[in-house]
Design brief:
Elements lengths: L10 E5 L4 H11 L5 E5 L6 H13 L7 E5 L13 H14 L3 E5 H4 L15 E8 L3 H7 L10 E7 L3 H13 L3 E6 L4 H6 L8 E4 L9 E2 H7 L10 E7 L7 H11 L4 E7 L3 H5 L2 H4 L1 E6 L13 E2 L1 H6 L4 E4 L5 E4 L2 H10 L8 E5 L3 H12 L3 E5 L3 H10 L3 E2 L10 E6 L21 E6 L8 H8 L3 E3 L1 H17 L5 H15 L12
Parallel strand pairs: 1-2, 1-8, 2-3, 3-4, 4-5, 5-6, 6-7, 8-9, 10-11, 10-12, 13-15, 16-17, 16-19, 17-18, 19-20, 20-21
Antiparallel strand pairs: 12-14, 14-15
Helix pairs in contact: 1-2, 2-3, 9-17, 9-18, 13-14, 13-17
């Protein structure tokens, strides 16, 4: 058993607020999920609030399995406590007396202590020595020596991951070290945060309400969406790669499926600037398959050992299976998604369809529709790319000015225009929508500006969520070899999207 126990106890819920009352409320919420809680004393707005919180801790009757970690991080260590080291040590001592079993002391404080050691201080029984590097991982890894940690019981290294390789290097320290906590920071490090316990980290941090470090995940997501505490080296890892990728609903879709079918797998989002950076980490992280979204659908082709003929013809891949030998096999389920979404609305064969755009998603849509017997027209900002796509599907290319005089059965938007943060923008104007049906491949927001304009004209609409779901079901089945639990996956995604449509919700944009 590790220093912090096993299972849920290795997920540390971070409680941070300006008042003692709010901190206490968050503690109660946290304890419903995990018995390990960090109290960010430095976030409290005054010494009076710190006293109130610790008085509450001292009188609260916690379960014997509860472990409280006190942190009073000073500004030089990335915290909010503006007083000096003596004040920091005072509050940590007070936290011990209130019942906290651990304290977190940053390395900046350790260096100022006599003999650079915590030994001899009458503070907490156990000390977690932490170092934060908000610039990058390499400098941090060189600077801290795990064998010489000033008498601390465990060491935490929280460092910004500027590349996926940074995350892998940090997780490598967790695999090779005992009593070590690895915390990759930033959006690039988010997948490694989820996989940290799987890789041997003593703890993984998750915020109850407000993130206290870049890329920190909410506790509810860590426990229920990603189930980080249940992951082992046998757990298969899947993910979505893209840039941007942070607001994709693919993790919700696929993880819901894994939970419903009791599959030992997890699906995480990878922000990928350079494909090589991600591909170099596939074997180390145990990745068995991944979705591909903007802007990598075409670039991934050159890294594949094998590609299904249709995806090769389209020239875009959205699904990759990783073989036992690490080889990559590509396919395209966007094709399935487009047809499934439109076939419920009209007979595709013989219909005239305008595909607006010429990127990877547009190519998938154009090939799917052409093969199903539609007459396909392409309109794109990049004229030559659009003409090439039109030629490939035996269709026609139309310049933007021609749209007002043309009529179609379907107009399909395959561009990212209208996604968050530009959700108030439509790629096409009302005068350009001369058709029976408008379909938008964007599914977040659920109701895009383009669809709103179409409905005002009395035009039938198809949300991109229908394509997203259909292509996702096909991906899930490729990876698992099982029948996708479509009803459960659909409910989870629609519930999330509808919640965002509420007046106080925050709509996000994504086609991943």
């Amino acid at each position: 058993m590790g220093l912090f126990g096993v299972g849920k106890s290795r997920v540390c819920a971070v409680v941070a607020a300006s008042t003692a009352a709010e901190m206490a409320r968050q503690v109660r919420v946290a304890l419903r999920e995990t018995p390990t809680v960090e109290l960010r004393l430095d976030w409290l707005r005054s010494d009076a609030e710190r006293r109130r919180l610790l008085a509450w801790v001292a009188t609260e009757e916690f379960d014997r399995h509860v472990t409280l970690v006190a942190t009073c991080r000073r500004v030089p260590g990335g915290g909010r406590f503006k007083s000096g080291i003596k004040a920091e040590m005072y509050w940590l001592t007070q936290a011990r007396e209130a019942g906290c079993a651990w304290c977190d002391v940053e390395i900046e404080t350790l260096r100022k202590l006599p003999n650079k050691t915590v030994s001899g201080y009458q503070m907490l029984p156990r000390v977690l020595l932490s170092m934060h590097d908000f610039g990058g991982t390499p400098a941090s890894a060189r600077e801290i020596k795990l064998a010489d940690h000033g008498g601390a019981d465990a060491v935490k290294l929280a460092a910004r991951a500027n590349t996926i390789a940074d995350s892998v290097r940090l997780l490598g320290l967790a695999r090779r070290s005992t009593n070590f906590v690895a915390v990759p920071m930033g959006e690039m490090g988010l997948p490694a945060r989820i996989l940290a316990l799987r890789e041997g980290s003593a703890l993984a941090y998750a915020a109850v309400q407000e993130a206290t470090a870049p890329g920190q995940i909410l506790l509810n997501e860590m426990m229920h969406l990603y189930r980080a505490h249940e992951l082992t080296r046998r757990t298969r890892v899947f993910g979505v790669i893209g840039d941007p990728v942070g607001h994709s609903l693919s993790p919700l879709l696929h993880n819901t499926g894994f939970i419903a079918r009791d599959v030992d797998a997890v699906y995480v989002p990878f922000l990928v600037h350079r494909l090589k950076d991600f591909l170099d980490a596939v074997e180390t992280l145990g990745i068995r398959g991944f979705s591909v979204t903007i802007p990598h659908k075409e670039a991934i082709l050159k890294f594949l050992k094998q590609c299904d003929p249709l995806a090769a013809e389209i020239g875009a891949v959205n699904t990759v299976v990783v073989g036992d030998d690490g080889s990559l096999y590509g396919s395209n389920t966007d094709y399935v998604g487009v047809l499934a979404a439109l076939e419920a609305k009209l007979r595709i064969r013989g219909s005239r369809v305008l595909v607006f755009g010429a990127g990877g998603a547009a190519r998938s849509a154009a090939f799917a529709l052409a093969r199903a017997g539609a007459e396909v027209a392409i309109c794109a900002r990049r004229e030559q790319v659009g003409k090439n796509l039109a030629s490939a599907v035996n269709g026609e290319f139309l310049g933007r000015p021609a749209l007002r005089g043309e009529k179609f059965d379907v107009i399909l938007n395959a561009t990212p225009v209208g996604m968050y943060p530009h959700r108030k923008i439509s790629p096409l104007s009302a005068r350009e929508l001369n058709c029976r049906i408008v379909m938008d491949l964007i599914y977040r927001p659920l109701d895009t500006e383009l669809l709103k304009i179409a409905r005002k004209k009395g035009i039938s609409t198809v949300s991109g969520v229908e394509m997203f779901l259909a292509q996702g079901f096909a991906q899930w089945e490729l990876w698992t070899g099982k029948r996708a639990p479509e009803a459960a996956m659909r409910r989870a995604v629609l519930k999330s999207l509808r919640a965002e449509e509420q007046p106080r919700g925050k709509n996000r944009g994504s086609r991943a």
